[in-house]
């Protein structure tokens, strides 16, 4: 069986996030945990916001 990295969000995910995230243009509370247990923060940003 292959282990894959796990993505989670510090503050969870609910229906409110489906509405607020596009308005803010980013999500900064992502956490990726590797199969070896290493933890990496991740940041998602809307390409339009980068412009």
Textual characterization of the structure:
It is elongated, with a radius of gyration of 13 Å. The protein has a three-stranded antiparallel β-sheet. With 51 residues, the protein is α+β, with helices and mostly antiparallel strands. The longest helix has 10 residues, at 15-24. Helix content is 27%, strand content 37%. It has one domain (6-50). It is built from two helices and three strands, in the order E-H-E-E-H. The mean pLDDT is 83.
Which radius of gyration do the C-alpha atoms yield? 13 Å
Class derived from helix and strand content: alpha+beta
Helix content: 25-40%
Q: What is the approximate shape?
A: elongated
Assembly state (oligomeric)? single chain
How many domain units? 1
Task: Describe the SSE topology.
Layout: E1 6-9, H1 15-24, E2 26-33, E3 39-45, H2 47-50
Antiparallel strand pairs: 1-2, 2-3
Question: Key terms for this structure?
Answer:
27% helix; 3-stranded antiparallel beta sheet; alpha+beta; 2 helices; 51 residues
Summed up, what is this model?
It contains two helices and three strands. The protein is α+β, with helices and mostly antiparallel strands. It has one domain (6-50).
């Amino acid at each position: 069986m292959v282990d894959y990295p796990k993505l989670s969000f510090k503050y969870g995910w609910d229906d409110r996030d489906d509405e607020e995230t596009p308005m803010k243009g980013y999500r900064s509370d992502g956490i990726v945990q590797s199969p070896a247990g290493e933890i990496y923060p991740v940041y998602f940003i809307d390409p339009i916001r980068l412009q």
